[in-house]
Amino acid sequence: MNPRIVILGCGFGGLWAAQGLRKARADVTVLDRTNHHLFSPLLYQVATAGLSAPAIAAPIRHILAGQRNTTVLLGEADAVLTDEKAVLLEDGSRLPYDYLIVATGAAHSYFGHDEWAPYAPGLKTLEDALEIRRRMLVAYERAERETDPARRAAWLTFVVIGGGPTGVELAGQFAEIARHTLRGEFRRIDPHRARVVLVEGSDRILRAYPPDLSEKAQLQLERLGVTTWVGRMVTNVDADGVSLGDERVSAKTVVWAAGVAGSPLARSLGVPLDRAGRVTVQPDLSLPGHPEVFVIGDLAAIEGVPGIAPAAKQMGALTAKNIAREIRGHQRLPFHYRDYGQLATIGRNSAVAMFGAFKLSGYPAWIAWLLAHIYFLINFRNRIAVMLDWAWSYWTYDRYARIVISNKAVT
After folding, report:
1. CA distances in angstroms from 88 to 63, 81, 265, 289, 299, listed in the order given
2. Rounded to two decimals, what is the model's pTM?
3. Which sequence positions are flagged as catalytic?
């Protein structure tokens, strides 16, 4: 009987693990709560109407259709029963395994203030992106109808909390939409007067980057019209805006990009978790005390390894290799992260990038960012769709993914 390998989650880590096992003499099962693999580095582009959802997603079944040893299941894991070597699913059924790869990623962290979530959605899924896009576009529509100047200003104020790559990218795109995309489309408001505020609790944005690149990123944001506040802590978020100590910002659109926590599934693994709810793994990425269980991607806490897609891919590939080696009677290999660099885009012709000691900013970094993201998209169709959308948007400033299904809004 072939070993049973279960992979929970088909993000970058899970997908690379599954593909790495395509030739293994094993029965592989991939379980995900959605039917698609998501190219999450471009999720903010869906949230800001730059791309449509299918441009950055692909059906998991289609991606893995050629792997005869792999079964794809749509469902959600409620718990891992390590003593029984089984995964408890949401319907009460159990999925047994000989090897388990947990790649369920991260969730939003509001630092103990989950009551803020309804007013400040985060960005992790397509549903999140579509909700942020809806709130942003509806805000302009409500501002067009509003006669009270103060309330109109609140509808035209967009606050992004968190100065990491996601927050910087969202803030830059919000500013570009206000100053270029919507120009001339309204009669009672001037979208150019919209206010975009980026709030970061530490002393600078993009703390994972060197200070000089952080400073250049902030300057590029400010040139786009983004107000950047660093060293400011959010103390409350509600339907009418954001509080920063004694200061109040009236805003109807608030987006949370300030913190992440490990998937809640980690709590069922029976091992200590770090402050962010992540699992400290063994050198081969296995679970302490359970060598048949591997934890990879954003859920794995490894010193010096950032929570980015390339790291998750490397973890997935190594885990697949180690399982295949063990099936053949060979020893496992330890994980060593290879840093291929980091990139963050700010707006049109603006980005920052670092590749080891080599640093770029402005237009050269933006070109590097653009080429890298097109290259790493999951399939040829997505690459073509994204290139066409970006080329059209670059020359015309148009964003045709501005479809709102529901016009409900926080009032």
Report:
1. 26, 7, 11, 20, 19
2. 0.93
3. 169
